## 1
Amino acid sequence: MDLALKSGQGEVVVTLDCDDSYPASMIPVLANYILKEGYDLVDGSRLKSKPEAMPWINFLANWGFALIASVFFFKYVSDLHSGMRAYRRTLIHSLKYQPKGAALPVELLLRPIKEGKKVKIINIDYNERIGVSTMRPLESAWWTIKRIMSVRFS
């Protein structure tokens, strides 16, 4: 993911998972917040409410981690693990983050918030994924906590 983020050539780099769970039609919407409204990062949150396509355990874990991060960073965040975001390319190149390990999106959202960058959260749809999930829940939970703490206390 680090190589993909840093290889972008335009002013905006948009990420989304390739399992058809995110609406590609939202790419211009996210990009326009950066190009026309001056945001540095736009997070596509899946968690306005529980998505039908998301198991309850995943929803509750995501909600809990978002609550912890919101308290620690004094900013409401609703979806630390979203795979759909738009980044200003200059932001990516200025961020210091640990590319190795699981839950990288957590750090890629929280570090700009901590640094006072202009971050926007918008709600997006979340669809049933194509294929089988490769997520390892315990490892992901450990890395999520590790990344929240490392950004907060760095």
Note: Residues 56-73 form the longest helix (18 residues).
## 2
Amino acid sequence: MSALHTRARIAGLLYVLLAIAAPLRLLYIPTTLIVRGDPSTTAANIAAHEALFRWGIVSDLFVGTILIFVVLALYRLLSPVNRSLAVLMVILGGLLPSVIYFLNTVNDAAALALINGAPYLDVFDKAQREALALLFLHLHGQVVTAAEWLWGIWLIPLAILVFHSGFLPRFFGVWLALNGLAYIAQCLLGFLAPGYDSGRFDTLFLVLQLGEVAFMLWMLIFGARRYLFRKTAQERA
């Protein structure tokens, strides 16, 4: 097994671990525990499933950590293609989003403290604490919307690197670029048109955002094909 193949499979494995952990706080908890516009029900749900909510915080910490290892693995794999683009990929896709994940756990911690009613919060009545808790949960969601900008932008240099690599299928380069544009569109719609009917675009966004899933699974299962890399190198020579 070549070093190139091994690096691709390691990057794919780390990427899959990231994809497994992220949906807990990103998708499951918001749809299971948080009721938009209903502070009382939301607080009751979180109080009844506090362990699950705390695991959501831990999942954000895990994702913020493993994200660094994912982009570093991709850097090892793709930096020979173009080092400048690979460095840009690490900054936009690893360092900045990782900081956001860590900082965003503060919003969840604040919401949990308000719901649990620590003694120093006695100046607020129960309804006020629940309203404030929902505000912090809303802020968590707004930070995620802002993070979608980076989730999209970092895929552009990654897409270019994959397209020109010679050892990964070129169609992934195109798909990843479209995946990135979908995230950017979601971010812009979230801030510029917060009341838009997302159902109109959900299917399109889902199809485009499957690019990352397909890419990580390809690397994990198939790795990289060195003979394609050699052919590309010879053609460039």
Note: Residues 81 and 161 are 6 Å apart (CA to CA).
## 3
Amino acid sequence: MKKAILNLSFTATMIFFCQSLTFAQLDIPRPSPLGRVYQKVGLNDITIEYSRPGVKDRVIFGDLVPYGKMWRTGANAATKVTLADTAKFEGNKVAPGEYSLLTIPGKEAWTIILNKDSKVSVTDYDQTKDAARFNVKPKIVADKVETFTINIADVETDNANIELVWENTKVSFKMTTEVDAKVMKQIDEAMKGVSQMEYYRSAVYYFDTGKDLNKALEWVNLSLKEGEKFWMLHQKAKIQAALGDYKGAIETANKSKEIAIKEKSDDYIALNDKAIAEWSKKK
């Protein structure tokens, strides 16, 4: 009898253990799933990690998320922003590191806060730890956005817009990062021991950013001394045209086209044809 009781007890224990193990392995979707957005802006990297609640037939701003009160800008924990390098948010300088993104929604204006405590909650928020605090105006969007979304949009050479969108409300603020001074420093350093590609890339940068075109032409010519490439010649032609030397630009473009034909580069054949046709009208 005693042995039977022991066996029964052991069986019950094993059943409970197996049930507990089964429950521990359950993988159930979260009501507000985690989201992550990454973007390189210029030479900087920004990562935003946040939870994404849904509207679910509720009124959001002014009701579920009250006006005038701090919001963790998502669900569960505060939204975390990680910067690889210094950036400015609406002109406010923020050092590299991890920050919490908090907001105070309003009907006419939102307060955006980047706080140095990346794990802060609304209840233990300390304003003295703010790295940046500024106001922006919300916009009404026609199409309803069911799931809270953070976008990094309108990415340009040294800036992008951070967008918070939910229900029929969108809030946007600008991030800028230093590019020109850093690239110029790299170029100055590179010129101390210059390769063909460094001359070429520096010439491209000067051309694309509207700097000294004569210097760009000098550098692209130096890059061509180590061997003429059709894409380098095409870049030289564009610089010549920008300097108003359309005759020289057409001659260079024709040379680029000849090499492109040999290399079977249809893209550059077409690019040169288009450029020659355009510059022929101006010479």
Note: Helices lie at 2-24, 180-190, 196-208, 213-224, 230-242, 246-263, 266-280.
